[in-house]
Amino acid sequence: VQLQASGGGSVPAGGSLRLSCLVSGSIFSINTMGWYRQAPGQQRELVASISSGGARTNYQESVKGRFTISRDYERNRGYTVHLQMTSLKPEDTGVYYCNAESGTVAYNDYAAYWGQGTQVTVSS
Question: What is the pLDDT of residues 8-42, one digit of tens each?
Fold first, then answer.
């Protein structure tokens, strides 16, 4: 499974950015995809996730109503996971990582895959 992220950049507070991540390769077992972020000196935290079917989403409380996660699927390409970010705040600054997960811990076949990070900087 390969993940290739794009997007990110620098915006003033109140601005918008869109992140995208192509998830390709052996994706048949992927069940969840999402975006994490890591601020300087902080632990990596989940921002939003979406099920591979697109029906279930989950958001960190601080981004609800401002961020929207979605995904597209193309048979010969894979999944593309988008994170539309609006009303950005300085505290949204960090390195954003896309993530895909397969299997479950209960069945001892869990695996997590990560893309390269992309920097998001929101100035006040």
Answer: 999 999 999 999 999 999 999 999 999 999 998 99
Tokens linked to 70: 């979605």
Residue 54 DSSP class: S
Rounded-to-integer distance, Cα 97 and Cα 7, Å: 11
Q: What percent of the chain has pLDDT over 90?
A: 92
Q: Starting from the edge strand earliest in sequence, which strands make up the sheet with 78-85, in order?
A: 2-7, 17-24, 78-85, 67-74
Indicate the Cα dihedral angle 121, 65, 37, 123, nearest 10°. 10
- Rounded to whole angstroms, how far apart are CA atoms 84 and 10? 15
Tokens representing 5 are 């992220």
